[in-house]
Amino acid sequence: MEPVEVTARWNVEGSVTPLQFVWKGCIYTVESTGRQWNDPAGLHVLVMVPDGTVFELVFQPESLQWFLGFRGQNSALV
């Protein structure tokens, strides 16, 4: 996993919505979010950017850091 900078919104129930992230010097705006799940690696969130590419963002609460889990191919839906 690769560290990334993420701008996100947390609601009062503790749910997170990533809004954008920076990867390899490029800013990606999150168009939509999909599945979220927790496991020992952290909170995983699937996000889609405007060109249809799906990314997995992983938040590790103990370090308060975000990571890029994977980058998928262009997809029609998260």
Any overview of this molecule?
With 78 residues, this protein is mainly beta. It has one domain (2-74). The chain is built from no helices and seven strands. A seven-stranded antiparallel β-sheet has the order 3-2-1-7-6-5-4, with no helix packed on it. The chain is globular, with a radius of gyration of 12 Å.
Shape: globular
What value does the average pLDDT take? 91
Q: Biggest sheet: strands side by side, in what order? A: 3-2-1-7-6-5-4
Number of helices: 0
Number of domains: 1
Helical amount among residues, as a percent range?
under 10%
Characterize the largest beta sheet: strand count, sense, and whether it forms a barrel: 7 strands, antiparallel
Distance between the termini: 20 Å
The tally of strands reads 7
- Helix/sheet category: mainly beta
Task: Flag low-confidence runs.
Answer: none
Tell me the strand percentage band: over 45%
The radius of gyration computed from the alpha-carbon positions, rounded to a whole number of angstroms, is 12 Å
The ordered string of helix (H) and strand (E) elements is EEEEEEE
